[in-house]
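Appendix B. One record, verbatim.
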Amino acid sequence: MQHEIKKWRYTLEHTIELYISMGKNFRFVGFFLLLFPLLGQAQKGYELGGWLGLSQYYGDLNTSINIKKPGIAGGLNARYNFNNRLSTKASLNYGRIAADDDLSNNNFERRRNLDFKSNIFDFTAVGEFNFFDYKHGSKLEFWTPYVGLGFSVFRYNPTTKLGDTKYSLRDFGTEGQAVGEEYLLFSGGATLTGGVKWDLNRDWSMNAEISLRKLFTDYIDDVSTVYTDKNTLRTRRGDTAVLLSDKSIDSAISTPGSQRGNSKDNDTYVFIGISIMRYFGDIPCPKVSKN
């Protein structure tokens, strides 16, 4: 059983690694999609449903493509099918993300000793392309792999604990932000999705999907640049801010101006889930030959 779990985890981690690599070049993916002809008899209609699964964060506090501290995730989907190949989907999503340097294999990260948790509230809109003709109610064309490109907007709020007390990290300007110049708790990102759709019957279908957001912010984990001067931070924000900004177990790594994060690579989060969708639309009759 443990062998099978390790095997599935290994496969999932390498799938995510591929998605992150593709996510860094969305223009290539978009051009790739345009090469496909729009085939098949039109089948218009919309679908409604919901999904459940996992959320996973990648960024300054999880720099390797490993599944560490996954959280629960879920949401509601609405899809409109333009034909058998093209559709658009909007979704409202929730995910719980977290990371902890204590779980890292990297010596610097373990010494840095930072951690965070955050709830993600996400709205996403994507255009989808079906690789095969997909017709609800068909006995032959009842499944297809698909990909999607779009955008997401989301709200986040990184938190951590000192003892038993939880703190919202943004409020303490942990990297030296002046009062009123803190990062926003709303941001967006470019979204890449992919998965498989298949019919259960004429009206109901299931989708297995992985979706990646390459974000426009590097502060989803409250870590991005360098350690700030502690005396200045104490004057601006108080002693608690100093404790939150530096939890290191080796004071040598947290001198002012030394690396705390990597501002050249924004954060990422991934949703992985299974959805059930209800189709509302007509099933077109096949065209009758005039010959």
